[in-house]
Amino acid sequence: MRYRLLGRTGLRVSEAFLGTMTFGKDWGWGASVEECRKMFTAYAEAGGNVIDTANRYTEGSSERIVGDLLGADRDRFVLSTKYTLTMDGTDPNASGNHRKNLVRSVEASLQRLDTDHIDLLWVHTWDPNTPIEETMRALDDLVRAGKVLYVGISDAPAWLVARANTIAEFRGWTQFAGLQLPYSLIQRDIERELLPMAAALELSVAAWSPLGAGVLSGKFTRSGTDGPSRVDRSTVSEHDLTIARTVDAVADEIGASSSQVAIAWTRARRPSIHPILGARNLGQLTDNLAAIDLELPEDAVARLDKASAIELGFPMEFIAETTADFVYGSSGKQVDGRRAG
């Protein structure tokens, strides 16, 4: 496992993050404490150093398990958690991105994690009811207090992230260093706006669900691989199954598993993307970890790209079509320009 810098910071983070939404059985499909320990050990022995959890994962059990697993080695890891989601649906102030919920959530997370600071705190999702200025100032206060070291945001539109970091930059507040977004061969929406923005602002991207909720693992396309799943087979589209079969074919040709190919694709052209590896048992995680050293042949990447291609839509397609001749004229072909992302 190699390490990269988180966004525009000096923090070293491993190529893949360990996702712990499966840590604990409170939601009925997670892993036991003993299995969590095995997965944590395997990830650490592979060189991984980012443990990603959230206050709401398995109703708080994930944070408690993570805190116990870190133990005396706490400072060797980048501890990452999130806030926003409600922990008490009857209380209107127990959710959202406002200052009160932020402080309340962080204090509770610190207790569950048994630590005095969070290395990387993510805003879990956009809360349109809270001004982004309030969120950014409140996050900066926690950084200045030493309870949080770095901040990021998950599941938010590109315009909001760009505005938030611009405000923070000009007011001397802590800026978002990374994004946490869904990204896989069956969900490439972030290529339209979010990935180009991340490249322009030098933000790291933590990709959740790189296996498309397990669809790309071969679970529904290979015989003998059926097992417990959060996804109902009847809800999986034929389009997604076609992509999964292409993944299977590439995997068979290069001697890898379908999961390894799907994860490797997320990193094939964008080294700033860190797949979040979430598993329910040691076998799954061990298989996923092997994807970090898998380099897909160029023709395989091209086949996967073609099978999963999406329309970028307006304005990106319009810009690409018009800049060739209409905007720049014939001399435009002689200019080596910047890449959009």
TrEMBL record:
> Does the record carry Oxidoreductase as a key word?
yes
Q: Which PANTHER family match?
A: NAD(P)-LINKED OXIDOREDUCTASE SUPERFAMILY PROTEIN (PTHR43364:SF4), NADH-SPECIFIC METHYLGLYOXAL REDUCTASE-RELATED (PTHR43364)
Q: Where is the NADP-dependent oxidoreductase domain?
A: 18-308
Keywords (alphabetical) are: Oxidoreductase
Pfam families, A to Z: Aldo_ket_red
Query: What is the designated name of this protein?
Result: Aldo/keto reductase
Q: Does the keyword Acetylation apply?
A: no
Task: Report the source organism.
Answer: Actinomadura nitritigenes
InterPro entries in the cross-refs: AKR_Detox_Biosynth, NAD(P)_OxRdtase_dom_sf, NADP_OxRdtase_dom
- According to the record, the segments passing through the membrane are none
